């Protein structure tokens, strides 16, 4: 019997294991710290918005090769990192994304909440709602996966969002989440309030999303709030988004 279990540490952990190596924890915080140590070379802030990675590993590899050729401050992975919320999936994607020559950040997607996925995400990337300042902009990363919380009226957390959009230490804000407010997986009772929260802040004119696996560019509040949705990675396209003052421009990059 002793021989049977002597080498048990050689076996892979259960797929729903949450244990994460130290160098793979708090990845969003580490990316923000790295980003804030960089010296901007232009007046324009440029970010790359990529959609759902899920099981599209070869496409993500090719994305990294393409993104590394772009002049951009950072990459935003807009949720559904995984398909089943399994630790190995998170790690497989990170093993690819760590080859980027610029920081990458994430928001949590609905698929990432499967199984023990929320615990893995918190351990690996950090809080589901977080914000940071960079070059006069405040980026607010928000959990909008309402269906996974039974449309409880608490996701997204609009009180937290309103608080984040207050203050005089930033000029403009960009809100980033997985599910857009015009999707059936966003709590319909909160959709109008979400849009009004962005508009009434006077600081937000851009909301970035994934989830729909198709590109979308639309506006609300008479064009004051722009919503951009990126495709999933198997469509082999991402968005290069440029921000300066209160202006927004973007182009599709096919690879």
How does this structure look, described?
The structure is a single chain. With 255 residues, the protein is an alpha/beta fold. The chain is 26% helix and 24% strand. The chain is built from seven helices and eleven strands. Strands 4-5-6-7-9-8 form a six-stranded mixed β-sheet, sandwiched between helices. The longest helix has 14 residues, at 188-201. The protein is globular, with a radius of gyration of 18 Å. The termini are far apart.
List the keywords.
single chain, 255 residues, alpha/beta, six-stranded mixed β-sheet, five-stranded mixed β-sheet, 11 strands, 26% helix, globular
Task: Write a short abstract of this structure.
26% of the residues lie in helices and 24% in strands.
Helix content: 25-40%
Q: Approximately how much beta-strand content do the residues carry? A: 15-25%
Which strands sit side by side, in order, in the main sheet? 4-5-6-7-9-8
Shape: globular
Query: Could you give the order of the helices and strands?
Result: HHEHEHEHEEHEHEEEEE
Number of strands: 11
Low-pLDDT segments = 1-13
Could you tell me the radius of gyration in angstroms? 18 Å
Overall mean pLDDT: 92
Largest sheet: 6 strands, mixed
Sheet/helix structural class: alpha/beta
End-to-end Cα distance, whole Å, is: 54 Å
Please, how many helices? 7
């Amino acid at each position: 019997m002793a021989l049977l279990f002597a080498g048990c540490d050689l076996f892979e952990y259960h797929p729903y294991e949450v244990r994460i190596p130290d160098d793979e924890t708090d990845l969003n915080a580490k990316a923000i710290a790295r980003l804030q140590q960089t010296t901007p070379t232009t007046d324009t802030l440029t970010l790359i918005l990529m959609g759902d990675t899920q099981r599209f590993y070869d496409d993500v590899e090719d994305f990294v090769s393409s993104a590394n050729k772009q002049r951009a401050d950072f990459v935003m992975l807009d949720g559904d990192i995984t398909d089943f919320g399994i630790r190995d999936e998170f790690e497989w994607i990170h093993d690819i994304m760590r080859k980027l020559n610029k920081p990458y950040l994430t928001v949590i997607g609905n698929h990432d909440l499967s199984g023990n996925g929320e615990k893995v995400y918190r351990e690996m990337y950090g809080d589901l709602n977080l914000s940071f300042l960079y070059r006069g902009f405040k980026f607010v990363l928000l959990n909008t996966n309402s269906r996974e919380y039974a449309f409880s009226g608490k996701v997204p957390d609009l009180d937290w969002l309103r608080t984040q959009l207050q203050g005089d230490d930033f000029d403009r804000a960009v809100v980033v989440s997985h599910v857009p407010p015009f999707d059936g997986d966003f709590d319909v009772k909160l959709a109008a309030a979400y849009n009004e929260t962005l508009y009434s802040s006077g600081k937000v004119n851009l909301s970035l999303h994934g989830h729909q696996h198709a590109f979308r560019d639309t506006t609300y509040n008479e064009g004051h709030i722009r919503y951009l949705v990126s495709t999933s990675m198997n469509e082999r396209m991402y968005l290069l988004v440029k921000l300066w003052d209160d202006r927004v421009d973007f182009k599709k990059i096919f690879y």
